[in-house]
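Form 7-S
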Amino acid sequence: MRMDRAFTVLAAALLAIALAGLAVAAVAAPPARTATDTMAAADHAAKALRDADQFALISGRGNAHACQAGFESLRHAALRGKALDQLTLGALYLHGRDCGSFHLARNDHEASLYLAHAAIQGRLLAMPALAELDARRGRALQANVWALAYLHYAVPAQQNTGYPASLLHRTLGMLSQTQNKQVLADANAFILRYNAGIEAGQQQMLAKLQRHAACRIQLVHRHPHATLWQPSVLRIHPMHRALVLYLVAFGRDGHVHKLAPVFAVPQWRYAQRFRVIAENRRVEPAPACGRALRWALLPVELDNHRYRITGRT
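Output:
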């Protein structure tokens, strides 16, 4: 009887020790990865690879395989209607790219096609690129419409200076007397036709920034209200200026880790001149961001405030 009792006590003690061990093991063991976690990790790795390939293509400093892959992923997304990829691909066609043995020839038609689709979806920086492209092609009326659209949406009325005025000065000088009378009507017709899509695209970009607040870099500046152009005389004091768009990767510390020019207008040589300005830009640190790099398109414009545009109410 005593032995039975002792055995029962011993068995209970061993069971308690075993249960305690299981409890410790349950606490110490890492949580099992779900299928959703695995898919998210795979998506993150695939996106990081696409980003690296596209940066290799844009910077021209990758091998041919990476640059080809970057081009294909950009083209695939652009054909699916992704405005940011349309802007990037159009800009690459605007200048052309050499990347190892991979060569993307300059193609004005393809550049115009992709940039125009990006512009009417709210990617405002496609508009000056289109204005410069049409000016290069001798399409004076279209160049002025894009220049006026850029001023309408992207440039506050109190800051009508610098590169936008230089752009408009050059495109206005291309117009014939008949076209000069027609251009404001065409610009207003463009605004009325595409305004809803442009504003919706801007709203979508702002909403995306708000959804990813931990990784936010900066808000896209929008003109809160812009009236149509009024028939009047546009007076501009000319001085040549430029606009360069860079693809930049900011780290969690807010410093620039990678940088490459996407487009430079009116001439590519400005990309190197303005590079140091872009490299020295800083943004707020983002220690809570789940990504090591935060990619952004950074426009750099030289503005000495020697321009002034009149003609908008």
